[in-house]
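Regression test case RT-17, inverse folding.

Input:
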């Protein structure tokens, strides 16, 4: 009697194995490596291009679907542009019972990207955009708070961009 449940389980396992489920990368099987071109910053925020490129590289390495290599060796190259960075107040606090000042902010960063196969006229992924966002508190130094908020929004956008490249093409 104990052999029957095991046999049924094995039969069910073998039948479900052919249903098209896949574990691992969803990337095209011929694309195994990626490079990140220098990012273009079209905002007035300082050093965003370098931070965005570094975070994109970090996210590709963490994802592991594609191996990060130099542009000369890559199967595909990601080109990105930071289009906008916008701040809005989220929470206010009072100072001296009559002055309201914002102490928590939201930042949104819009990044446009495309993926090109070197030597190909048609892009692998045509131009798309992702928006990363983060909330941050200003603390005693407004500049440091804004920089940290921008970095968090860039990280959010980089994660979305990597997902779009590895799964959404």
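Golden output:
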């Amino acid at each position: 009697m104990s052999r029957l449940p095991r046999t049924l389980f094995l039969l069910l396992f073998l039948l479900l194995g052919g249903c098209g489920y896949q574990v691992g990368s969803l990337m095209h099987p011929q694309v195994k490596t990626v490079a990140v071109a220098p990012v273009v910053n079209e905002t007035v925020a300082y050093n965003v291009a370098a931070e965005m490129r570094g975070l994109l590289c970090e996210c590709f390495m963490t994802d592991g679907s594609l191996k990060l290599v130099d542009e000369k060796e890559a199967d595909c190259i990601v080109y990105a542009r930071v289009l906008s960075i916008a701040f809005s107040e989220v929470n206010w606090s009072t100072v001296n019972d009559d002055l309201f000042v914002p102490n928590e902010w939201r930042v949104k960063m819009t990044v446009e990207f495309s993926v090109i196969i070197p030597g190909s006229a048609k892009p692998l992924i045509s131009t798309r955009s992702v928006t990363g966002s983060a909330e941050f508190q200003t603390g005693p130094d407004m500049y440091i708070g804004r920089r940290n908020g921008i970095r968090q929004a860039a990280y959010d956008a980089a994660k979305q961009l990597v997902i779009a490249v590895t799964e959404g093409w």
